[in-house]
Write a structure and sequence with these properties.
CATH class: Mainly Alpha
Strand order of the largest sheet: 1-2
Largest sheet: 2 strands, antiparallel
Number of helices: 16
Helix content: over 70%
CATH topology: ABC transporter involved in vitamin B12 uptake, BtuC
Oligomer: single chain
Shape: globular
Order of helices and strands: HHHHHHHEEHEEHHHHHHHH
Length: 379
């Protein structure tokens, strides 16, 4: 009984409960919006949101396809949050990594077989790490606010990629990057034969395995290694970690590089999926980077939680597409996700407020009195 009580009062259970409450409130707000916009078909549209990703195996595959980049950008945001840095620059790191992967996929035709795809993924991670390194250095050495520098790098990355695409791998007829070569496409690994309807397969590929493996590696790195302990120490109390001998500047720079590499890998997995998606030359920041923020928030910055949160947000996305059958716009799912973010952040702040004001002694009063009597009897 005491074990169950301790489990229910544990931090992990509190985080899980706060995420569930945020999701429930977000879905209820979405239902209200549906009722206001189209009362006759509101419940059918809401049903499409809740069950759209499970209607057939192809939709299940599409959920996994959309979840792949979300998991990586969520890991990127969550990892940097562990060191107390809000990586709002995932969008720029994502598109820079995507360009690097597509460039290798189009131009490096001398690479044989699977080596072409593997090289494209590695180059994307290096490009993303470089884009994360810059705000990391600015924060650690020049004491520039990481949010400001990341926003700056987002726009620089967007315009730089637009310039590079038009001068290196441009398809002028479609105003986008050229299609990648077949060798650079991420293998389906048999998933197209599982997640399909008739002869129409989903877009899911082996990238989902890479995303899950990345999440497990990040979890082990944070929870089971000395570097992970230093990360959490810097995030919880930078001054105390500094006086204990931890090089906080080094930790910040390395964490931002790893976060950038994760976002860059997410960009590569999306654009090397073989789904026909290309980099469009438009002055719009990559939404996948910003969508990593609610994923990290829902996952409570826990790598395993982020994997499930990424799948859940992708599930809502697919449900939003199916909702169009009832004359609803898919952007309603954006409203739901926004509400989930708001209440998720609210519950997180409320939990931290309660924790900071919790009295030092939280035991039972009777236990304290008994202990005093035993002490008096012993004397």
């Amino acid at each position: 009984m005491n074990t169950l009580k301790r489990y229910l009062n544990s931090e992990g259970m509190e985080s899980f409960a706060s995420s569930v409450f945020a999701i429930i409130i977000g879905l209820l707000v979405g239902l209200v919006v549906l009722l206001i916009s189209n009362p006759q078909q509101a419940f059918e549209g809401f049903k499409a949101i809740l069950l759209g990703g499970l209607t057939d195996m192809k939709n299940v595959g599409q959920v996994l396809y959309f979840a792949t980049p979300l998991i990586l950008t969520g890991l990127s945001v969550g990892f940097s949050n562990k060191v107390g840095q809000f990586n709002i620059g995932a969008s720029g790191q994502f598109i820079v990594g995507a360009y690097a992967a597509v460039y290798v996929g189009v131009k490096w035709t001398f690479l044989p077989g699977p080596l072409h795809c593997i090289t494209a993924l590695i180059v994307a991670m290096l490009a993303g790490a470089l884009w994360g390194l810059i705000p990391g250095i600015l924060c650690a050495i020049c004491h520039v606010n990481v949010v400001i520098s990341c926003i700056m790098m987002n726009y620089i990355g967007m315009y730089m990629v637009n310039f590079l695409v038009t001068h290196t791998i441009f398809d002028s007829l479609k105003n986008q990057s050229l299609p990648i070569k077949a060798n650079a496409v991420i293998p389906k690994m048999g998933l197209d034969n599982i997640f399909k309807v008739g002869n129409s397969p989903s877009s899911v590929n082996g990238g989902i395995f890479i995303a899950v493996i990345a999440g497990i590696i990040i979890y082990i790195l944070i929870e089971k290694t000395k570097f992970g302990f230093e990360l959490k120490a810097c995030g919880l109390n930078p001054d105390a970690s500094k006086y204990s001998g931890i090089d906080s500047n080094r930790t910040i720079v390395i964490s931002m590089m790893i976060a950038g590499a994760l976002s860059g890998l997410g960009g590569a997995l999306l654009y090397l999926a073989g789904s026909g998606k290309s980099i469009e030359v438009v002055d719009v920041l990559a939404p996948e980077g910003f969508n990593g923020i609610p994923v990290a928030l829902l996952g409570q910055n826990n790598a395993i939680g982020i994997i499930f949160a990424g799948i859940f947000v992708a599930y809502l996305t697919v449900g939003g597409f199916n909702m169009q059958l009832y004359n609803f716009v898919p952007q309603i799912t954006d409203i739901i996700i926004s509400v989930i973010i708001y209440f998720g952040a609210f519950f997180l702040l409320f939990k931290e407020f309660i924790r900071s004001h919790k009295p030092a002694y939280s035991g039972n009063v009777n236990d304290e009195v008994t202990a005093q009597k035993e002490s008096a009897g012993g004397n």
